[in-house]
Amino acid sequence: MLDQLSKLWNTAFGSLPPEVIVRAPGRVNIIGEHTDYNEGWVMPGAMSRSLYILVSKAQLPNPLRRGSSSPESISPPFPPKGGKSSHHWIAADLNEELQFDHLENIPLTQSIWAKYILGALHVYENDLGPLHIMIGGDLPIGAGVSSSSSLVGGLLLALQRLTGDQKTKQELAQLSSRVEREIIGLQGGIMDQYAIMLSEAEKVMMLDCRKKTFEFISASIPGTQWVLLNTKVKHQLIDSDYNQRAAQCKQAVEIIQKQFSGVKSLRDADEDMLLKSNLPEVLYRRSHFVIEENRRVHEMKAALENKDAIKAGHLLQASHYGLQYHYEVSCDELNHLANLANQTDGVYGGRMMGGGFGGCVICLVADEAMVAFEKKAMDSYQKQFGFEPEVIHFSLSRGAEVIGP
Ligand code: GLA
Known about the structure:
The structure is a single chain. This protein is an alpha+beta fold. It has 11 helices and 14 strands. Strands 1, 3, 4, 5, 6, 13 and 14 form a 7-stranded mixed sheet that branches. It has a 4-stranded antiparallel sheet with strand order 10-11-9-12. Strands 2-7-8 form a 3-stranded antiparallel sheet, with helices on both faces. The radius of gyration is 22 Å and the shape is globular. It starts with a helix and ends with a strand. Alpha-D-galactopyranose binds at residues 33-34, 36-37, 146, 188-189, 191-192, 354-355.
């Protein structure tokens, strides 16, 4: 993977290797969905599938490769900019590239990835001038494994290396989350950014999103495996639906506060408070889900520590039920796969993972049931939707790291 990117780099930017190469993983989440922006608890980890981000300062005239053997996969070739150094960003997996002199001139019409890069440069504030950036890897995009936070977090780490700044990984995670909120306009929490920057291999992180403290726990239960089933769909309006949920939680808190002034976020609320606050029905369901999901994170911690696959499976099932009916962030494709998981012998449980409206289902499966379950999921999903889901096996990896040159 990296070899291929290095070759592309040579073709695009000449024989000087990148000044820094970062590996930034994707994010999985065992449980604790839509709890992070309610200052609750989550249990994410970094997955082995990653983005690679290669970066150099573009101090020299860009030795562009017009007429040279430019790779088929990258098009169209851009003409040299008259000897001036310029920004030149390439998203290898998407066959897209952008080249421009100044950040203000960046054509952002379709390239959401470029908007994230721009966001990272904006919040980092230490201007390095024009940059050559190449991104690529084996992280699925739009699959709910937070490839966007992986890109932003990885790039911030690369910028830190290039500038010699001494920010901690926690500071970089906070900067990364500002990109989502301030530049992209998604009122997200801190789960993805913390997991991507700070995770440890073979562990998940139990993160307290208010205190911003975390501990690592093992998610492995002997005789079982975690697996993702990617629906390969991403429904429209994800951002506005997501922001609407965040706004509803805020509204609920405002109502609860009238009687219970100590409640600063849904983390502080309980069922009794919800009932006494006479919340409108929708706000009641949203808040109730968050309270239960926070509780499930703690119960999952105990289940993992006790290596109790049955309990862990029940928690996954209950989480999916709440996400589907009470928080209403699921979709037909996710429900199909989660329901299949929850009805298949040897599968302890499954639930949609991440923001929702598409992306992946995460399942806990007995080793001996895995092959049959995969086949069943493929066949039944194909029959229902006309295409196959992607099965993603993963291991839990370290957070973003500088790996070269
Ligand atoms: C997205 C957001 C996260 C979190 C999840 C839902 O991945 O980026 O902050 O809110 O959705 O749990």
